[in-house]
Design goal:
The protein is of the alpha/beta class. It has a domain of 102 residues: Nucleotidyltransferase, domain 5 (2-Layer Sandwich). The chain has five helices and seven strands; from the N terminus they run αββββααβαβαβ.
């Protein structure tokens, strides 16, 4: 918008135009947000570093393909106990309806998926498998006609 100072517009939008002051999630929005209406049968869970190196756990719906309605939950924490506490606020019937959840190899992600989405098949994210568990590239080259076309694999229980 020509002639409008950006910071002033941002302040006016937040304080006057939007309903931010009366937003029902405002009290806990700094710590967690949950959108149960976005849950689908296929989900992804991952930890993400946002501003300042803070780690968040993000649950997204694969059905939305990264567009509007993909965010199911975001929690300002990666400890499984904290994330589980927030995800259990989603109605049990919705959580039991999840058929598959894609996650990385972190033990905390596996605990979260197992506890919150017990009926879901847990699938390891292919990028994690290619990097290896410590984030290091694997030493063994992938060869053959399907190289570069690996599929996600199901987690095995031990």
């Amino acid at each position: 918008m020509y002639g409008v100072e950006g910071k002033k517009f941002q302040r006016q939008y937040k304080n006057k135009i939007s309903d931010y002051k009366s937003w029902k999630h405002k009290a806990h929005a700094q710590e967690w947000l949950i959108y149960p209406e976005n849950i689908s049968q296929t989900l992804s869970i991952d930890e993400v570093a946002l501003s300042g190196g803070e780690l968040y756990t993000v649950v997204t719906s694969k059905k939305a393909k990264g567009k509007k309605g993909c965010l199911v939950a975001i929690v300002k924490e990666t400890r499984s106990e904290t994330v589980i506490e927030q995800l259990l606020k989603i109605d049990r019937r919705l959580r039991l309806n999840v058929k598959e959840i894609t996650l990385d190899m972190a033990g905390s992600m596996k605990r979260i998926a197992k506890r919150c989405f017990p009926n879901a098949k847990r699938t390891v994210d292919r990028a994690t498998r290619l990097r290896g568990p410590a984030g290091n590239p694997r030493q063994t080259p992938v060869a053959g006609p399907r190289a570069g076309k690996q599929r996600d694999i199901e987690c095995e229980e031990k």
